[in-house]
Amino acid sequence: MNEYFIGLMSGTSLDAVDAVVVDFASFPPKLCATAEIAISPQLRDKILALTSKGDNEIERLGQLDCELGELFATAANRVMKLAELKSKDITAIGSHGQTIRHHPKLFSLQIGDPNRIAEQTGVTTVADFRRRDIAVGGEGAPLAPAYHHWLLGGELGAKSGVVVNIGGMANITLLPTQGAEIVGFDTGPGNVLMNSWAEQSLGELMDRDGAQARSGEVVEPLLSQLKEEEFFLKPPPKSTGRETFNNRWLQQQLVKYSTGDITLKDEDIAATLCELTASTIATAILTSAESNIAKSLWVCGGGAHNSYLLERLSFHLPEWKVSSSETVGMDPDWVEAIAFAWLARQTISRQSGNLPSVTGATKATILGAIFPSVEGTF
């Protein structure tokens, strides 16, 4: 018998809404269909405008919540059609929503009205996953390590190594041998600063395959300055977002460094930002990995397609085997969407979805709020 769930993910990269249909009837789960709906430049601008303080925030937030809810519902309906399934076939949708603000241990706000998703798809929808973890003292992030552990490090998976997800931000999951505590946390910027600089210097949304960064040279004094950011010095558990690492932060850092009429080449800045991501991920791994961790690094997220970034990771981790998460059965482009399908399954099954050793919560707890479908299938 099938056990279908839909996962919806829109991350800090703000490029698209990812949608998946996953069948959890067997292990490992089967990825049945995928869909990607691009976020328009206009919608992206609206989201970015709400990630920092501004005028008329509540009105703009309410309108964007509705607009994103419609977009997420469209994505869910599209992937359902691609899987040749009906709403009655789907147990639930897990919608991460779009993060607008993330203040660890205080609040985390994701929007994209789940009422509209449930209404327009006819499928019970689970959303607002992060705030329950915060309610029990956690950071509210990262949540994907719980899925990584279930898939790779649990009794059925029994693999040891490190998963690094490089989206807008980067986070790692350390999977030790059986019986040891799972560790995971955000390491800092993933693609967010590199993408921001590519947009400014190239007029592109990203530095494709790290071509611009590869052509430049790392500016070591600038790199050292960037690493002085307080977040890098904090011990885990920790999480971050665009509140800390954004284009405004980058411009301030460049102005600070350029005092004294120093002129930097665009490609050197690109190389330095790529090095910041690679070196901070590597440092986080080397300072956290114990001897019970196999030296295998599995990369997922958009960063998995940046060959220069992977080269720099390998440089900083010479004793490690760096490869795509595809080598362990996790499609690098869809891992996070699948993770939120799994989190919805945990919620519907009344099982916990967080790992206290990762988020710093005082206990494991059921995550998310449930919005029943029109048919009342829950």
Strand content: 15-25%
> What is the number of helices?
14
Low-confidence stretches are none
Summed over residues and divided by their number, the pLDDT gives a mean of 94
* Rg (C-alpha, Å): 20 Å
| Major sheet size, sense and barrel closure | 7 strands, mixed
Could you tell me the number of beta strands? Answer: 12
Following the backbone from N to C, one meets helices and strands in this order, namely EEEHHEEHEHHEEEHHHHHHEHEHHE
Helicity level? 25-40%
The first-level CATH class of the largest domain is given as Alpha Beta
Tell me what the CATH architecture of the largest domain is: 2-Layer Sandwich
- The first-to-last residue Cα distance is 18 Å
CATH fold node name of the largest domain: Nucleotidyltransferase, domain 5
Number of domains: 2
Name the structural class: alpha/beta
CATH superfamily of the largest domain: ATPase, nucleotide binding domain
Assembly status:
single chain
| Shape type | globular
